[in-house]
Design brief:
By secondary structure, this protein is of the alpha/beta class. The chain has two domains: 80-91 and 359-466, Aspartate Aminotransferase, domain 1, CATH 3.90.1150; 95-352, Aspartate Aminotransferase, domain 2 (3-Layer(aba) Sandwich). Helices cover 38% and strands 13% of the residues. The chain contains 13 helices and 15 strands. It has helices spanning 8-18, 48-64, 95-100, 103-106, 118-135, 147-162, 175-185, 206-212, 234-243, 325-329, 343-381, 405-414, 445-466, and strands spanning 80-81, 139-140, 166-170, 191-195, 217-223, 247-252, 269-273, 289-293, 306-310, 316-320, 385-386, 396-400, 417-418, 421-422, 434-438. The strands form four sheets. Strands 2-8-7-6-5-3-4 form a seven-stranded mixed β-sheet, sandwiched between helices. A four-stranded antiparallel β-sheet has the order 11-12-15-14, covered by helices on one side. It has a two-stranded parallel sheet with strand order 1-13. Strand 3, helix 7 (175-185) and strand 4 (191-195) form a beta-alpha-beta unit.
């Protein structure tokens, strides 16, 4: 349809106008033996990502004088990577950089003057609208620094809403998110209580949660999919929190999961890291944090909010609302110490969501699920074991090997493969061999098979040593 823009309805209307029953009848004057009745014998169509990889391969092969096709590793990427844990490698449509590098976006300043900032303000407004549709919340801000600061700011927001000074946090929340939260609340007189997870499922321990919530608990903070990749029972946790008068904050580190995982509509506040939506994995940032919530909490939401209005001529327009410049200068009046947002990065996210759409996002998420399922089975067949089996999950899982994570990853690295993230630093109870593995649509079958072959080799060495 990109190159043949007439829809079937358009074609029917055109045929009716000229009085011809079908397109085939237009070619009746051509003898039947000269008409093409089958598809052209040409290679199948390629996706945008495949085309880019193909040209990279051609360029690499020309430079080396080798005309062979792609090797195990795609051209331009020397190492395969199975890291996730809050920073995910997804395909970025080329249109993103083409648009965000336009001068009116790339060089725009804080849009205090709406008269000259309508483009930037509209982009923020569209971003907020899409985030609300994605998360099931009623209102969203115009982005924050990243998912970790978004989670911390959500806790501060819950304390302002409830007038309480305590937060109960699941150990299955990203460890670095919890570290940021501890730093932010250190001098805020806010107590942080962590509670554990069930060893068999990797989900939060509801009994431990119930025991941790008190009359001074402002909020319960969970992550779903959690750090282990498992999906939490948000409805049950929300009921437990609300029964004690606390708010529920759901942190989401992998935005693509919302393509197939039910939006956490039972939550009061959703803190989202939107890096997966068209933002490159770049040494920890800049990324794109989001806070979305129920509308009744609007006045306590940090960050910027763009509203729709009309000008003196009745034309549709956009302005910053409920957050004046003075709010960011006068500390005693501010809802946050976040004094800016990630408007350019949020624009990348907006373009990504626009390009993929609802159906495209679902298909992307399903492909991630399929890749992770294949990778997990390949590694199991290679002799490794997995944790939390039987629990619903997205595209990450915990793998365990008999030898330490450091030793296994060193052998993978020799084959230009970056293995899973070692977990013993934060979760010593899982053992020295526990690693967190991730597969996305960018992970190829050849890469997964190569990683499984290395793990199988490690297993064979263990068996020989045992004999």
């Amino acid at each position: 349809m990109r190159y043949l823009p007439k829809s079937p309805a358009d074609r029917e209307a055109m045929l009716a106008e000229i009085g011809v029953p079908s397109i085939e009848s237009l070619f009746e004057t051509i003898p039947a033996e000269y008409r093409l009745t089958e598809d052209l014998k040409i290679p199948r169509q390629h996706s945008e990502s495949e085309i880019l990889e193909r040209f990279r391969a051609f360029g690499s092969n020309l430079a080396s004088g080798d005309a062979e096709e792609l090797a195990v590793q795609p051209a331009g990427r020397l190492f395969a990577s199975f890291l996730g844990a809050g920073a995910y490698r997804h395909y970025r449509p080329v249109i993103i950089d083409s648009l965000v590098q336009r001068g009116e976006f790339l060089t725009s300043y804080t849009p205090y003057q709406p008269e000259i900032s309508q483009g930037t303000l509209q982009a923020m407004f569209e971003f907020q609208t899409m985030i609300c549709e994605l998360t099931g919340m009623e209102i969203a801000n115009a982005s924050m620094y990243d998912g970790s600061t978004g989670a911390a700011e959500s806790v501060l927001m819950a304390c302002r809403v409830t007038g309480r000074q305590g937060a109960v946090v699941a150990r299955t929340v990203h460890p670095e998110y919890r570290e940021v939260l501890a730093t932010v609340t250190r001098h805020q007189e806010i107590s942080i209580t962590e509670f554990g997870y069930i060893a068999d499922t990797g989900r939060v321990d509801l009994a431990a949660l119930e025991a941790a919530i008190t009359d001074e608990t402002a909020c319960v903070l969970i992550q779903s999919p959690n750090f282990f990749g498992t999906i939490e029972d948000v409805a049950a946790i929300a009921e437990m929190a609300h029964k004690k008068g606390a708010l529920l904050i759901v942190s989401i580190a992998e935005a693509v999961s919302l393509g197939v995982v039910k939006a956490p509509v039972e939550a009061d506040i959703v803190s989202l890291e939107a890096q997966s939506f068209g933002v490159a994995v770049g040494f920890g940032g800049p990324y794109c944090g989001v806070i979305a919530c129920k509308e009744k909490f609007l006045r306590q939401m940090p960050g910027r909010l763009v509203g729709e209005t009309k000008d003196t001529n009745g034309k549709r327009g956009w302005v910053l609302t409920l957050s004046t410049r003075e709010q960011h200068i006068r500390r005693e009046k501010a809802t946050s110490n976040i004094c800016t947002n990630q408007a350019l990065v949020a624009l990348m996210v907006t373009i990504f969501m626009t390009v993929y759409g609802k159906q495209g996002l679902r298909e992307l998420a399903e492909q991630n699920l399929a890749k992770a399922a294949y990778l997990r089975k390949a590694l199991l067949d290679a002799g490794a074991t997995t944790k939390f089996d039987g629990t619903p999950r997205f595209h990450e899982f915990v793998l365990t090997t008999k030898e330490s994570a450091a030793a296994a990853n060193a052998k993978l690295l020799e084959k230009q493969i970056v293995g899973g993230l070692a977990l013993a630093k934060w979760y010593p109870e899982l053992g020295e061999g526990a690693t967190l593995w991730c597969a996305t649509e960018m992970t190829t079958k050849a890469q997964m098979d190569a990683a499984a072959a290395v793990i199988a080799g490690v297993r064979e060495q263990e068996l020989v040593g045992a004999k």
